Amino acid sequence: MTLLAGKNAIVYGGAGRIGSAVATAFAEEGATVFLAGRTGARLAEVAERIRAAGGAAEAAEVDALDERAVDEHADAVAARGGIDISFNLITHDDVQGTPLVEMSLADYERPVVTAVRTHFLTARAAARHMTARGSGVILFFGGDADPVREFAVGGLQVAFHALEAMRRQLAAELGPHGVRTVTLRTGGIPETIPADFAGRRVIEESITGKTMLGRAATLADVGAVAAFVASDRARSMTASTVNVSCGALVD
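Structure tokens predicted for SDR family oxidoreductase (251 residues):
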């Protein structure tokens, strides 16, 4: 029996590398996946690949920073049998590689504002439907982490810390209604680094060098763990983080 049979999952940023991997894993485990994002053509391609492999997927252009668009899309999915899983994986428009003392205020604060705004909107939209049904899972990605010494990451870590504060508060408020909130942490996924990025090799070596298993997490690893955490087999997991870092992150 598949882990997510009969469940509806919304994946925001479903055309991205992580989003498409998670959506594919959800579909492989039996979920109907509703891909949401701003790139309609790319979303359609991911949805078609999922359907070609025997899964169920639909795509919709949704700006996950737009309150009305998020609410209307969530309402439409809920009308199709409810929302069981919500996972926001849109990019945060962060600037990396620039030291903080050389960074503009706009570049520093953009990922913080973007992350907080979009996750609040999507989590709230899902939670309103989940609490009414008494069940559901809201997943986050990133998590608290120690400062990165090898590479300047701008405001990205601040954004992750803000999201963890949000996730903890949601866990406390939504738990009594049967809704779980969990964060997946990876320590970095080499596959997500653009092939033409000048510092790719250095970052890949840094990520792998910190692991205990001698390899970094893959996109497939993240998708598989996300599917498990979203399933009823993980029903006791909430207000927590799941370490998918191959030992790079020590809890």
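The CA atoms of residues 8 and 83 lie 5 Å apart.
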